[in-house]
Amino acid sequence: MKTKANIPEKTIERLLIYRRELLNLKQEMKTAVFSHQIAQLTGATPVQVRRDFMQIGYFGSSVHGYNVDELINSIGEFVDDVQTQNVALVGVGHLGRAILDYLQGRREKLKITALFDVDPTKVGSVLHGIRCYPTEQIPEIITHENIKVAIVAVPESNAQEVAERLVWAGITGIVNYAPIKLNLPPEVYVENRDMVLAVEKVAFYSRRVNKKEELL
Amino acid sequence: MKTKANIPEKTIERLLIYRRELLNLKQEMKTAVFSHQIAQLTGATPVQVRRDFMQIGYFGSSVHGYNVDELINSIGEFVDDVQTQNVALVGVGHLGRAILDYLQGRREKLKITALFDVDPTKVGSVLHGIRCYPTEQIPEIITHENIKVAIVAVPESNAQEVAERLVWAGITGIVNYAPIKLNLPPEVYVENRDMVLAVEKVAFYSRRVNKKEELL
DNA sequence: TTAACGTCGTGATTTTTGTAACAACGTTAA
DNA sequence: TTAACGTTGTTACAAAAATCACGACGTTAA
Ligand SMILES: NC(=O)c1ccc[n+]([C@@H]2O[C@H](COP(=O)([O-])OP(=O)(O)OC[C@H]3O[C@@H](n4cnc5c(N)ncnc54)[C@H](O)[C@@H]3O)[C@@H](O)[C@H]2O)c1
Ligand SMILES: NC(=O)c1ccc[n+]([C@@H]2O[C@H](COP(=O)([O-])OP(=O)(O)OC[C@H]3O[C@@H](n4cnc5c(N)ncnc54)[C@H](O)[C@@H]3O)[C@@H](O)[C@H]2O)c1
Question: Which domain does B185 fall in, by range?
Fold first, then answer.
C-alpha cells in the first residue's frame, strides 16, 4: 500500500467519521452520495471530503458522486487490518461495562475478546460471551489471543501499573480512560479520554457563546 | 482579559492537561516546577509549555521556573468561569453512572446539578445527592439552575432529539457520547466522544508500530 | 570580576492542516 | 451541436500549529 505512508492524523479521524455515516447510509439503502452530502452529515467541508478520499486513492464519478459500498470498502482497506483485531478491556466497572455493551458487535474488524479485573466477584464471570480473567493472566491471554489493542478503564491509582503490564505483554495501542498521562515507551500509541478535560473544554467554549450573545 | 481573544484550541486543551498535573504536584507539596518537568508529565515539549503560558500572560522565573500555585490560578482565571458552572447529565445508564461517579467533586468550578432520564425507575431517585428529573422538565430545570453545559449519554436513537431539547432550553455546550453527529445551530459547541472511533484509531496506529517492528 | 550554566521569552522558520480556485468531464436541455 | 450545469480531482495558496534558534538574565563557582 504505497499511499499509506504519510496520511495526516486528522484525515484518519475524518475517514472513520465518514465511514460511520456511510454505514448508516447503507442501512438506508442509499447507494451513492455526493461530497457535499457527506460533508453535511459529518461536519466537514466538501473539499475536505474529496481530498481525504483522494488521499486513500478512491475516486468517485462527477455524475453519481461516490458509491457507498465501494467507499466503505476502500476506507476499510485503508484503516482496518486484514484480519479482525482482538481487543482487551481492563477494568470491568461501570465504565468498562458501558464500553463493552456499546462496542461489542459494532465493527466487523474489532472484537473485545478478553476482560481483566482484580475483583474476585468479577473474575471468572462471562459477559457478552467474554470471559473475565485475573490480571495475572494478562501476559498469557494477550499473547495467546494475539491482542495488540487494550482499553484501560481502571481507577487512576492502578492505571500506570496496568498499562505497563499490558505493554510488557505485547500491547502497542491503548485507549486510556484514566485521568493520568501514562508513561510508556514512545512506540506505544495512546489515546487519552479524560472526561473532566472534555467537560472543562466544553464549559470554556460554551461560555464564549454566551458572551457573544450578550454583545448583540 | 485582553489576551483571551485568539488562543488556539490546542493550547486550551494543553492548558487543561497542565493544570491536571499541576494539581497533582500541589498535592505532593511541590511549589515550583520547570517547563521541562511539565513537558515530561504531560507529553508536550518544553518550548510548547513556555509558549502556552506566555499566551495566557503568566511568566515564570528563569531561576525557579514556575510557581505551582500561581500557575494553577492563572490557568484557572483563564479557562474557568468566575462562578461555578452547573452541568446537566442526560441518560443515567451505565455510562452516565460512570461519568457521574467520576466527575463529581473533581473540579471546584464544575458541578453536575441535574440528572435527566426517561426510565420511571430512575426518575425521582437521588444519586450523589443529585436528583433525577424526567426529560419533560429539561426547560424548567435548565433555566432555573442556569445550566449551560450538558453531557449526553442516551442511546443513539434519542440523542438528536435530546440535544435539540437541551439547546432549546438554553444549553450552549455539549459533550456527546452518542455515536452520531448532532445537527445543531453552529453557535452550540459540541465535543464528540465516540468510543468506537477512538478504538478504531488506536487499532490503526497500533498496527503501524507492529509493522515497523517487522522491518527491523 | 568574569565565565559557564540553566532556564525563560520570543522572533524566525518549518511543518501541518485547511481553503480557494479552477480545469476536466459527463449530463441535460436548448 | 452546443452551451449551461454540477460535481470531481488537483494545484496553488493561506492559516494554524509546532519547532528551532538565540538573546536575556539570575546564579554559581572559579
Ligand atoms: N475518562 C473518563 O471518561 C472516565 C469516566 C469515568 C471513569 N473514569 C476512570 O475510569 C475508572 C473506572 O471507572 P468506573 O466508574 O468504571 O469505576 P469502577 O470502580 O466502577 O470500576 C473500576 C474497575 O476496575 C477494577 N480494577 C481495580 N484495580 C484494578 C487493577 N489493578 N487491574 C484490573 N482491574 C482493576 C475494579 O475491580 C473495578 O471493577 C475511574 O476510576 C476513573 O479513573 C474515566
Ligand atoms: N461514546 C462512548 O464512549 C460510549 C460508550 C458507551 C455507550 N455510549 C453511548 O451512550 C449510550 C448510553 O450508554 P449506556 O451503556 O449508559 O446505555 P444504558 O442503556 O445503560 O443507558 C441509557 C440511559 O439513557 C436513558 N434514556 C433513554 N432514552 C432517553 C431519553 N430520550 N431521554 C433521557 N434518557 C433516556 C435510559 O433510560 C438509560 O438510563 C449508548 O446507547 C451509546 O450510544 C457511548
Answer: 85-197
